[in-house]
Amino acid sequence: MTWKLQAITGEFTGQEISVDRDMLVGRHQEADVVLQSAEVSRKHAALLLKAEDLWVQDLNSSNGTFVNDLRIEQETPLHEGDIVQFASFKFSVLAPAKPELLADEPLAPAGTEVEQIPELDVVETATAAEPTETVAVKTPAQQMNDQGMPELKERDASVQLTRDGMPTNVGVPKPAPIPEGTDLSAATPEPQPVPVEQPVSRVEQEKEQQKNASVGLMTIIVLVILAIIAWLLFK
């Protein structure tokens, strides 16, 4: 299912953006939705598809991401008619169209029983010159009797039958014995699971880069503090 964002401000007013996958919004040229404005961060926000729902997440942008004029700090679901805003750029959320029933296929009202046409055993044929002639349609059992299949009463009286008409005391051939020492587990090996690599989305990559940048910055700050302390001690 494809969601859409329709621009309602700025130079993009009236244009629609189709969202059919996770997308990055920002000023950077590699973003999926590029907004060329100084107030928009290079990597401003992310549009996420979860099942059939659309979510938006702010990526620590300078001027923020808003949903219905409320600034968001975490992943927020979007609904039909919501206004999502990246800095000063506003977009209206359009939900995917739901499938509709065809107009030329009317449905019977609930509780209505569909009348079934009974099968006919007699077919009447008529022509303009001849009177109506009735032709009897034979059942499969009657056709088998005509071909030489005897009825139950004509079969051998010594054969005992069940209620379903099946003969009793009929021997069933046994399967051939399996030779001793045969390893059955080797004949049908168990299938080995095949590892499937999960694709890493661009949003997850951006989160990992931000995390690594934060760790590196903290490391530099700690080293500077330790250098200052060492300088004061040995001064």
Characterization of this structure:
- β12 (about 120-125) and β13 (about 135) form a beta hairpin.
- A six-stranded antiparallel beta sheet has the order 2-1-11-10-7-8, with no helix packed on it.
- It has a domain at about 1-95: Sandwich (Tumour Suppressor Smad4), CATH 2.60.200.20.
- The two termini are about 70 Å apart.
- By secondary structure, it is α+β, with helices and mostly antiparallel strands.
- The chain has helices at about 140-145, 185, 200-235, and strands at about 5, 15-20, 25, 35, 45-50, 55-60, 65, 70, 75-80, 85, 90-95, 120-125, 135.
- It is elongated, with a radius of gyration of 39 Å.
- This is FHA domain-containing protein.
- Keywords: Membrane, Transmembrane, Transmembrane helix.
- Pfam families: FHA (PF00498).
- InterPro entries: Cell_Proc_Reg/RNA_Proc, FHA_dom, SMAD_FHA_dom_sf.
Helicity range: 10-25%
Computed CA radius of gyration, to the nearest angstrom = 39 Å
* Shape assignment: elongated
CATH third-level topology of the domain at 1-95: Tumour Suppressor Smad4
List the helices and strands and how they pair.
Layout: E1 3-7, E2 16-19, E3 23-26, E4 33-34, E5 45-50, E6 53-58, E7 65-67, E8 70-71, E9 76-78, E10 83-86, E11 89-94, E12 122-125, E13 133-136, H1 140-146, H2 184-187, H3 202-234
Parallel strand pairs: 3-4
Antiparallel strand pairs: 1-2, 1-11, 3-5, 5-6, 6-9, 7-8, 7-10, 10-11, 12-13
Domain FHA: 23-72
Transmembrane segments: 215-234
Region (Disordered): 163-209
